[in-house]
Design a protein that fits this description.
The complex is a heterodimer. Chain A is an alpha/beta fold. Chain A has two domains: about 25-165 and about 340-355, Rossmann fold; about 170-335, 3-Layer(aba) Sandwich (Rossmann fold), CATH 3.40.50.1370. Chain A has 13 helices and nine strands. Chain A has helices spanning about 45-60, 85-100, 120-130, 145-150, 165-180, 215-225, 240-245, 260-265, 280, 290-295, 300, 325-330, 335-355; strands at about 75-80, 100-105, 135-140, 155-160, 200-205, 230, 255, 270, 310. A five-stranded parallel sheet of chain A has the order 7-6-5-8-9. Chain A is globular and about 50 Å long. The two termini of chain A are about 30 Å apart. Chain B contains 15 helices and 20 strands. In chain B, strands 1, 2, 3, 4, 5, 16, 19 and 20 form an eight-stranded mixed sheet that branches. Chain B has a four-stranded parallel sheet with strand order 6-7-8-9, sandwiched between helices.
């Protein structure tokens, strides 16, 4: 797909330049067509590319002595989290503050999903209190769609149930792009022989796929980028993904396996997912020890991948379970870069959404 | 009315008023009791069907089955009317009004009220409410199998049978254990009544939200496997086979079956001569799990692959679609349609399950479970008929004689066909008249239907129950 092609339905060409993020978001030469960011499934290749290039611009901002632009001055970004989180919540908060937004943080009790004030009432209240953008995390899959139905501004999904974690998938893609593809100036990062960013690259997502919103969103962005995607874990934690793989539309295929040796062989990227202790209680796994022995990402296992393979983890890690401590901090690890890039990606998304004309 | 059918009656009466004089001319009559359908006329005098006339030759010219149809009033084996205990979601009065609007003249209330219908005084309360409503729709009831539907101690089965319940069910949950089920089947088998079981292994459905498979995986919803239904159906049939050796009158009815495997179990059990019947809901015949992703196509329009793209389409996670059992894949739905067509399924039962907006308009996974479908059942079935998946005669039979057999003579109605000399139990609907589902048009209090905004074929023009007016369309 040519980058000069218009976004379907908008008739507006997406330029290839770097957005001028010091200016107000409404002045973007490249309009962003989506009021909300609920998932990555509806994003076109051009739109994902625009997020990447806007993130480049935000990285440049972050490298300044005063890492701040006035783009969202006077806007209220409310962060509503119904689940415990450190890195995603703080990342959004730092991103919004770097854009000079006013930030309100609300930590809702995790147990109040079905009790007390309903989500609908909470969102109405937040809007009445002046929120322009709502970042939300919720344990129920699909909850941000409900919020988006009633909220007058933009909703950014910070993770819903097992369903989606769009900013994580975009920061993962950004991190892979940054590391695997040549630096700007050397060659364009957006075009390969097939026109796809990650064509011919093998990416493995390893671990608890079943409960992972990170994996579900990454399936969309990584297959859209043309990666040879493999999902690997114990079969109890892969349930349903073979059905997805076999039903996915053309160009959305991926491989599902419990064979970790086959998965890791010549991999360019290995992304380990967190294993939670509750999985033992619900009978999905015999023990953490057995999981670590059979699926833990150790240095010995990583040797089967390409020497320069990237090791990723969305955090928080259980070191010694899904990832060995030396691998987590080893030379292949880009885990802290994921965190840094997360701020830039979230700045980019807040910026792009703020420019949408309602 | 496109076929020249005529409805001549005295000035519109009130609900409950005796139908003194009604002439239905040149309509398409469907009589599932005799298996006959065709052009005809019906005359009702003083609430009694005075004449059923089949038209032949020139007289029949221009009358076709795509216009006004007259059928026996429908029978719903499975409806949650919420009274007593949850009158904010539905009352007997609003439930019976909704039934009449849907063409039903006999409704079996489920026992999962608060308190549960586990002893005769609750049944008396339900009947008093029905009487007070003034509706002529016949209200029947299932008693609970166990006290409080808790699955442990048998409810007052004999007393409830004497008081007139038509079956026993712990619906909302399966009969707790095989041992309790065996005893219940044997005990009520001697009373000539069925156990109506909701087949679900709760161990396999803990926290489950959507049919296990492609759609649930993509949407990140907890999978609800077909095995949860099929394993309990297999258990129930094994227990039934055990019981009928000693108690030949034992009968099992499996309600809201939704999978190919469960229906195969029933098909084989029927072939082996076991006394089992089953029903399927309208939504499990017409809607698929792809609706959860916003891909809202009728099952018969969806082909083999309703949702290949996988990306969310529009307004996904509609809590109006949260139901037990869950909406299934297009393959399972095709099997349900086939089982209804071939007679494996005896009846269509609505599992009408109204809820308040407080309980329904929340996150999908937190939403109350159930679809209020008694008013849209006919429209969905006629959609399947229009698509060629079902004959009109079979659809009508599944709403009349099919459930009538399960009732086993406990209804006031002597026949579920078009019979001269009997009190009129009739529904008149126009297949050519499509109507739009809106909260205002529905009589149920649980108006959070997933079909809001959709057009359905077959507007109900008139419903008569026991010779009295139950519903009359005044929009024309």
């Amino acid at each position: 797909m040519s980058l000069a092609e218009p976004i379907a339905g908008t008739g507006t060409p997406i330029a290839t330049g770097t957005p001028e993020v010091d200016a107000a978001p409404e002045t973007q030469s490249v309009p962003w067509p989506h009021r909300h960011l609920l998932d990555v499934d509806g994003l076109s290749a051009d739109e994902i590319d625009l997020v990447m290039r806007t993130t480049d611009a935000m990285r440049e901002v972050l490298a300044r002595p005063i890492a701040k632009v006035p783009a969202l001055r006077g806007r209220n970004v409310t962060i509503l989290f119904y689940e415990a989180s450190t890195r995603t919540r703080v990342s959004f908060e730092v991103a919004a503050k770097n854009l000079s937004a006013d930030v309100v943080n609300i930590a809702a009790a995790t147990s109040s999903v079905t009790k007390g004030e309903s989500l609908v009432d909470t969102v109405r209240t937040i809007e009445a209190l002046g929120a322009d953008m709502l970042v939300m995390r919720h344990p129920a899959s699909g909850a941000p769609y409900l919020a988006a139905e009633i909220f007058g501004g933009s909703v950014l999904n910070g993770g819903d149930g097992w369903h989606a974690h769009p900013t994580q998938a975009l920061l993962d893609l950004y991190t892979i792009r940054e590391r695997l593809l040549p630096a700007p100036g050397a060659a364009p990062r957006t075009a390969t022989a097939s026109g796809q960013l990650l064509a011919g690259r093998k990416v493995v997502i390893l671990g608890d796929l079943l409960h992972s919103r990170v994996a579900r969103s990454n399936i969309w962005t990584l297959t859209a980028a043309g990666a040879d995607l493999w999902l690997c874990g114990p079969s109890t934690l892969l349930r349903g993904f073979e059905a997805w793989a076999s039903r996915g539309a053309a160009g959305r295929r991926f491989t599902v396996t419990s064979n970790i040796d086959a998965a890791l062989r010549d991999a360019d990227v290995v992304m380990a997912l967190r294993i939670q202790r509750e999985r033992m209680a619900s009978g999905l796994l015999p023990s953490l020890r057995e999981y670590a022995a059979r699926y833990g990402l150790t240095r010995a296992r990583l040797a089967a991948a390409r020497p320069d393979a990237l090791v990723m983890h969305p955090g928080p890690m259980n070191e010694g379970v899904e990832i060995a401590p030396d691998v987590a901090v080893g030379t292949n690890s880009v885990i802290t870069e994921q965190v840094t890039n997360g701020v830039a990606v979230r700045m980019a998304l807040l910026y792009l959404l703020a420019g949408v004309k309602s | 009315m496109t076929t020249g059918a005529t409805l001549e009656r005295l000035a519109a009466g009130e609900v409950g008023a005796l139908v003194v004089e009604l002439d239905i001319g040149r309509a398409w009559l469907v009589d599932p009791a005799s298996g006959r359908e065709g052009p005809g006329e019906i005359v009702v005098r003083d609430g009694i069907v005075e004449a059923v006339t089949w038209l032949e030759g020139d007289e029949a010219a221009g009358v076709d089955p795509g216009g006004v149809v007259v059928a026996p009033g429908f029978v719903d084996l499975h409806a949650h009317l919420r009274e007593p205990g949850n009158e904010d979601a539905e009352t007997i009065a609003t439930g019976l009004a909704a039934a009449a609007h849907g063409g039903f003249t006999t409704v079996c209330a489920m026992a999962d009220t608060t308190p549960a219908l586990d002893e005769p005084s609750v049944l008396a309360r339900v009947r008093a409410a029905a009487l007070a409503s003034g509706s002529p729709v016949e209200l029947l009831a299932h008693g609970a199998v166990t006290v409080g539907r808790a699955g442990e101690q048998l409810a007052a089965l004999g007393e409830l049978a004497d008081a007139g319940v038509v079956g026993f069910s712990d619906d909302g949950a399966p009969v707790g254990s095989a041992a309790i089920l065996r005893n219940a089947l044997a005990y009520v088998g001697t009373l000539g009544l069925p156990i109506v079981d909701h087949a679900e292994d709760p161990g396999l459905t803990a926290g489950a939200e959507a049919n296990d498979g492609y759609v649930a995986t993509v949407l990140g919803l907890r999978g609800w496997p077909a095995a949860a239904e099929e394993s309990v159906v297999a258990r129930d049939l094994a227990v039934l086979a055990d019981v009928v050796r000693d108690v030949p009158g034992a009968r099992l009815h499996l309600t809201h079956l939704s999978t190919a495997g469960a229906l195969d179990h029933v098909r084989r059990a029927k072939a082996a001569g076991l006394p089992v019947t089953c029903d399927i809901t309208p939504h499990h015949l017409a809607l698929t799990d792809a609706w959860l992703a916003g891909a809202r196509r009728w099952a018969w329009d969806a082909g083999d692959d309703p949702w290949t793209d996988g990306a969310v389409v529009a307004a996904p996670y509609d809590p109006g679609l949260r139901v037990n059992p869950p909406l299934r894949s297009v393959v399972e739905v095709a099997a349900c349609l086939a089982a209804l067509a071939d007679g494996t399924a005896d009846a269509v039962a609505t599992d009408h399950a109204p809820h308040t907006s407080v309980d329904k308009d929340v996150e999908f996974g937190a939403s109350a479970v159930g679809i209020a479908g008694i008013e849209t059942a006919l429209g969905l079935l006629l959609g399947a008929v229009d698509a060629g998946r079902l004959t009109l005669a079979r659809a009508v039979a599944a709403l009349t004689v099919g459930p009538g057999i399960v009732l086993g003579g406990r209804s006031r109605r002597r026949s579920f066909g078009l019979v001269e000399g009997a009190p009129a139990d009739l529904v008149v609907f126009d297949r050519s008249d499509r109507w739009t589902v809106t909260p205002e048009y529905l009589a149920t209090k649980g108006a959070r239907s997933p079909l809001i905004g959709r057009d359905l074929p077959g507007r109900v023009l008139l419903t008569i129950a026991d010779g009295r007016l139950a519903y009359e369309d005044v929009s024309a």
